[in-house]
Amino acid sequence: MFLLVLYPFLLFFAVNGMDRNDLTSITVSTVSLSVYFYFLQKKVFIFQNNFPIFFLYNVSLRCVVLGVTPHLSDDIYRYLFDAKLLVSGLNPYQYTPNHWLIQNVTLSTLYKDLLSQMNSADYFSVYPLFLLFFYICGSFLNSILSHSFLGIQIVFLLIDVFNLFLIRRFYPKESFAFYWIYFANPLVIIEGISQMHPEILFIPWLLLLIRLKGNQWNGMVFLILTQLKLSTIIFLFAFLRKSKQLLVLSGFVFVSLFIWKFTVFGNWLAQGNLGIGLFFHSFRFAGIIEPFFYIPLHRFGVSYLSGIFSLFSFGILVMLLSFQPKFQAQTKEKRLLLVYFLFLLFSPVVHPWYWIPFTLLGMVCRIPFLWQAFVSSLGFLSYVVYVSESYFYLYWMHSLLGLFLYVRKETNHLRKAT
């Protein structure tokens, strides 16, 4: 019981004490959170099948991180900047933040404060309108509470509490150990609630995508997911086995892309050079497979092509996989998990919060809990890249070793089963 009581304090000290520019705080937080998360799963029997108490305990874990100033990521300042432009009747996709201030010298001090905190002041916005809607709602709540971030954190808390309810609703007969994987995951709580990253908004739609049967309903879910983040279009690869289903879903995706064309992609050239195109030719962070392309290409002076090569390889691999009978015979959630996992492997940018959807999909697919704890540690350890680029290899070796051990274990299990 004492260990469960101690967990909220550990989350509080980690979210307040972890500094992405300090190797010691990152290492201590990574080890303590992932190890504690792993061993506490064995203690959930203490709740004695009392789900309301278990549910409230996990809600309280999220309340512990409310009111924290996000210092692990700068993204929230760009979300707020774009949201405030929209509220003011301005187009956030027209100029970069620095250009906005040049064009509008009368913009309030608040805009300038947000600009000074963000790391994307020279880049065009890549955040769709539907996503910014949640930050607009949180901004209004911020003004009511006279707090810079608490309003948005409360909005994300309410959404994640709804996520917990949906998980229980769709999987009512599972053990508390099953629920623990998402309910108490430190990566979900810290990155999703305190740092306010949008991947937590994917969860209800992914659950609906798994549970819904009709093509039209799945198409609506795809429309919403791709209006939260364009990369969710990769989930279409999990639905290539039926031509009619693919046609319907593609129709909804086309509508979503049409909306993108008149919002984010209003200026194609600008987005390619200083917007979403940066993820293909410039941005690199904690990639797993991408470094295998970067290292040889760097020797020839064309390292900027590593992201393109890596993502192109992902596209070819997942396309070939999608038409394999064994892949098509898998359940919907397993197909979604495999597609997303391959995307994370080949993506040149893998921020810690990218693993949140994997946590949910891995839970419903019953992957080993040890692997979930490893993913949590992998996400937090990636912050060492901010300390020094040389520490990237520490993270990289950790990720490759974990993957090797997991794949070997699963291969041995498959060999014994067959």
TrEMBL record:
<feature type="transmembrane region" description="Helical">
    <location>
        <begin position="121"/>
        <end position="141"/>
    </location>
</feature>
<feature type="transmembrane region" description="Helical">
    <location>
        <begin position="147"/>
        <end position="167"/>
    </location>
</feature>
<feature type="transmembrane region" description="Helical">
    <location>
        <begin position="246"/>
        <end position="270"/>
    </location>
</feature>
<keyword id="KW-0812">Transmembrane</keyword>
<feature type="transmembrane region" description="Helical">
    <location>
        <begin position="302"/>
        <end position="324"/>
    </location>
</feature>
<dbReference type="Pfam" id="PF26314">
    <property type="entry name" value="MptA_B_family"/>
</dbReference>
<keyword id="KW-1133">Transmembrane helix</keyword>
<feature type="transmembrane region" description="Helical">
    <location>
        <begin position="336"/>
        <end position="356"/>
    </location>
</feature>
<feature type="transmembrane region" description="Helical">
    <location>
        <begin position="179"/>
        <end position="197"/>
    </location>
</feature>
<feature type="transmembrane region" description="Helical">
    <location>
        <begin position="217"/>
        <end position="239"/>
    </location>
</feature>
<keyword id="KW-0472">Membrane</keyword>
<feature type="transmembrane region" description="Helical">
    <location>
        <begin position="24"/>
        <end position="40"/>
    </location>
</feature>
<protein>
    <recommendedName>
        <fullName>DUF2029 domain-containing protein</fullName>
    </recommendedName>
</protein>
<feature type="transmembrane region" description="Helical">
    <location>
        <begin position="368"/>
        <end position="386"/>
    </location>
</feature>
